[in-house]
Write a structure and sequence with these properties.
Strand order of the largest sheet: 14-26-25-24-15-22-23
Helix content: 40-55%
CATH superfamily of the domain at 442-572: Calcium-transporting ATPase, cytoplasmic domain N
CATH class of the domain at 442-572: Alpha Beta
Oligomer: single chain
Strand content: 15-25%
Distance between the termini: 40 Å
Bound molecules: adenosine-5'-triphosphate, copper (I) ion
CATH topology of the domain at 442-572: Calcium-transporting ATPase, cytoplasmic domain N
């Protein structure tokens, strides 16, 4: 499956979004294979998925009326986009000043009592000259709208440019006809509207320029991430060091990292140790200590140590480039609300043209004198004010800003839809191991219940089995074995019992290592229960031990050999420093917090008590985790599930919002809507708060845009005339339209620095 991302610099119009998407859907239906496109107006990006080449995709976009030459791959477009935007910004400013430079004096002259009429030969001559100048100014200041209209006509469609082009030329053509043949017009309608055409163009260009400036800021997050990528690195060869472009480096190359340098590619340290600042990726401010064997990521910054590291991912596969890709994809993704507005915008333009023609016809036929002038003013004003650009920008602008802000906090958002759901969360379900706890457990005590067994040989057997398990508890036991310099052997058999532990044979003896459930399964149930109750004193005193381990939040792991319980290994996994604070913050936000774990109830309760969680579901098997989430949902809760393990994946998928810890398993990350690159839990609060803030922001934008269009059109059509006696001037319509999209962009920009609560 190809995934193509194209930058379409000329995309300017909300109604084009749906058009491009439809073109791909049609192509897909007409046998070009299963392809689909997602268009984002805010970023001018088209994401194409499916079996299609970039060339074919460009052809499809071109068929809607875009210049195929100008369309380029988005991944290489970042720089081009910057240049384009700066150029466009300057051009719009120049166009605005020329448009307003002619428009403002003309308008002032009219306002100060100058006659904007053609009532004698002298006025006819003077206005003729003004008309020609106006024409030239319009060509220069409005050429992108006229070209846009022309492209749309060729593609047999209409867009926002069409409205502006029609509106301004209607005013000019009418005025010019008055100049050329005043006798065709009743005396009171020999009015000229040259100032309207140039004022409208001037104002819209000014609006665009300001909007471009604001937009530049919205894509800052990706720019910042791209900036983390260094271009060259120092490679070690047999003939000494050489500087190489990172695109030419391969997995396995050895690179040198000097103090203060930025890491070029993902790698594993071969020589040296240092502190590495990973804050740009994870949001984690404290530098992390790294030594031989540890992994380092492209884009992070080396402290004072000098390192030699081995490349583990080529330039396009680094974590950093995956993050950039994810952020870009998420920024162009859509929310359900956004889709609706795209649909509306697509029908908007033709509908507006019809409304404009009808209302001006009504004014001409039934309106008070001078009917023809009124009809023209109404036509122009409706065409200009109806432009749906604010509506089209309302959602994508906010999504872009919030996805970028999330990335800055170390949170990767999979798609815009997740933001919408995350804003409605009522319950947060936290997994214990690796989410509330650090996920780096350590063996604290080995309690031998059979005095004939020696600790070392037990550890050897248990670790030999655990080396086949990926569970964090397994790695704790292996670390312990390594510390004791134990060499592991190969068990005769091994089986993983999901959510309970492991079993296997070593040297003809059967081992069961795991929780109480596994012991019961292994046939020790009766004995254990009796012991817990304190009725059997066969293995006296150990139940107190178990309770003691558990009350400290440690996990007791039972070891049975040939169905006889021989040892209890206690394993501690420290609770994250900010866990209690994060839980409190969630509660303060009115959220219910639930702890969901496969671990035993005593340990779970102890952890819950320490961090302040009231509701605990313990000893939950992996498939039951999902079940629990579904039950919460059935009870009416909107659930965010936070987890890191393979056993969390189904629950992450079923939850309304799945949040994976970035340190967790690939499976968990794939199943989640958000990935936290930082280990801190408080980031969850920030993420949910950001989601709420962006939804509020989007609603404000949509409300504003909707009100603007739904009030603007009737006012421009003249419904207020009976009360005020004046029609909305086309110039005011132009100003309102320029303001509307500027307001949306500025409001979205507020999200960048808004305080989250
Ligand atoms: N490899 C293993 N070695 C020993 N015990 C194990 C192993 N795998 C699982 N267990 C036991 O099964 C229990 C449940 O494991 P599971 O992976 O479902 O959840 P968990 O890792 O304890 O916690 P969480 O659900 O919070 O991530 C563990 O607490 C442990 O007692
Ligand atoms: Cu517009």
């Amino acid at each position: 499956m190809a995934n193509i991302s194209l930058y379409v610099p000329k995309m300017s119009c909300a109604s084009c979004v749906a058009k491009i998407e439809t073109a791909f859907a049609n192509a897909s239906r007409n046998g070009q294979g299963d392809i689909a496109a997602r268009v984002n107006l805010a970023d001018k990006l088209v994401q194409v998925s499916g079996a299609i080449s970039a060339e074919d995709a460009i052809q499809i976009i071109a068929s809607v009326g875009y210049d195929s030459e100008a369309i380029i791959d988005a991944r290489t477009a970042a720089e081009q986009k910057g240049i384009d935007e700066r150029k466009e910004y300057r051009l719009r400013l120049i166009q605005a000043s020329i448009g307003l430079g002619l428009g403002v004096p003309l308008m002032l002259w009219g306002l100060l009592g100058g006659e904007m009429m053609v009532s004698n030969a002298q006025q006819q001559q003077a206005w003729g000259v003004v008309g020609v100048i106006t024409f030239l100014v319009m060509l220069f200041t409005g050429r992108h709208f006229y070209q846009g209209m022309w492209r749309a006509i060729k593609a047999k469609s209409a867009n926002m440019d069409t409205l502006i082009a029609l509106g301004t030329s209607a005013a000019w053509i009418y005025s010019m006809m008055v100049v050329i043949a005043p006798e065709w017009f009743p005396a009171d309608t020999r009015h000229v509207y040259f100032e309207a055409s140039v004022m409208i163009l001037g104002l819209i260009n000014l609006g665009h320029a300001l909007e471009l400036r604001a937009r530049g800021k919205t894509s800052e997050a990706v720019q910042r991430l791209l900036g983390l990528q260094v271009t060259t690195a120092i490679r070690l060869t047999d003939d000494g060091d050489e500087e190489v472009e990172i695109n030419l480096l391969q997995v396995g190359d050895r690179l040198r990292l000097r103090p203060g340098d930025r890491v070029a590619l993902d790698g594993e340290i071969l020589i040296g140790q240092t502190l590495i600042n990973e804050s740009m990726l994870t949001g984690e401010p404290i530098p992390v200590h790294k030594a031989v064997g540890d992994n380092i990521s492209a884009g992070t910054v080396n402290g004072n140590g000098a390192l030699i590291y081995r490349v583990t991912a080529s330039a396009k596969d680094t974590k950093l480039s995956k993050i950039i890709e994810l952020v870009q994809q998420a920024q162009t993704s859509k929310m359900p609300i956004g889709r609706l507005t795209d649909k509306i915008s697509a029908y908007f333009v033709p509908v507006v043209i019809i409304i404009a023609l009808l209302s001006s016809l009504i004014w001409y036929l039934f309106g008070p004198a001078p009917a023809l002038s009124h009809a023209l003013v109404v036509l122009t004003s409706v065409l200009i004010i109806a432009c749906p650009c604010a509506l089209g920008l309302a959602t994508p602008m906010s999504i872009m800003v919030s996805v970028g802000r999330a990335a800055q906090m170390g949170v990767l958002v999979r798609n815009g839809e997740a933001l919408q759901t995350a804003s409605k969360i009522t319950t947060v379900v936290l997994d214990k191991t690796g989410t509330v706890t650090q996920g780096s457990p350590e063996v604290t005590e080995i309690l031998l219940l059979d005095k004939n067994i020696c600790e070392l040989s037990l550890l050897e057997d248990v670790a030999s089995l655990e080396q086949h398990s990926e569970h964090p508890l397994a790695s704790a036991i292996m670390t312990k074995a390594k510390q004791q310099s134990i060499t592991l052997k190969e068990p005769d058999s091994f089986a993983n019992v999901q959510g309970k532990g492991i079993t296997g044979f070593i040297a003809g003896r059967h081992y069961a290592v795991g929780n109480m459930g596994l012991m019961q399964q292994a046939g020790l149930g009766g004995k254990l229960d009796a012991d817990i109750d304190g009725n059997v004193d066969g293995i006296s005193g150990y139940q107190q031990q178990v309770a003691e381990f558990a009350s400290k939040g440690q996990t007791p792991v039972f070891v049975a050999v040939d169905k006889v319980l021989v040892a209890i290994i206690s394993i501690a996994d420290p609770i994250k420093a900010d866990a209690a604070e994060a839980v409190q913050a969630m509660k303060n936000q009115g959220l219910k917090v639930v702890l969901l774990t496969g671990d035993n109830p005593l340990t779970a309760q102890a952890v819950a008590d320490k961090v302040g969680i009231d509701s605990v579901f313990a000893q939950v098997l992996p498939e039951q985790k999902q079940q629990k989430v579904l039950e919460l949902q059935q009870a009416g809760e909107v659930v965010a599930m936070v987890g890191d393990g393979i056993n969390d994946a189904p629950a992450l998928m079923s939850a309304d919002v799945g949040i994976a810890m970035g340190s967790g398993t690939e499976v968990a990350i794939e199943s989640a809507d958000f990935t936290l690159l930082s280990a801190r839990l408080i980031v969850i609060n920030d993420t949910l708060a950001l989601a709420r803030a962006s939804m509020t922001n989007i609603k404000q934008n949509l409300f504003g845009a909707f009100i603007y269009n739904s009030l603007g059109i009737p006012i421009a059509a003249g419904v207020l005339f009976p009360f005020t006696g004046i029609l909305l001037s086309p110039v005011i319509a132009g100003a309102a339209m320029a303001l509307s999209s500027l307001t949306v962009v500025s409001n979205a920009n507020r999200l960048r620095s808004q305080r989250l609560k």
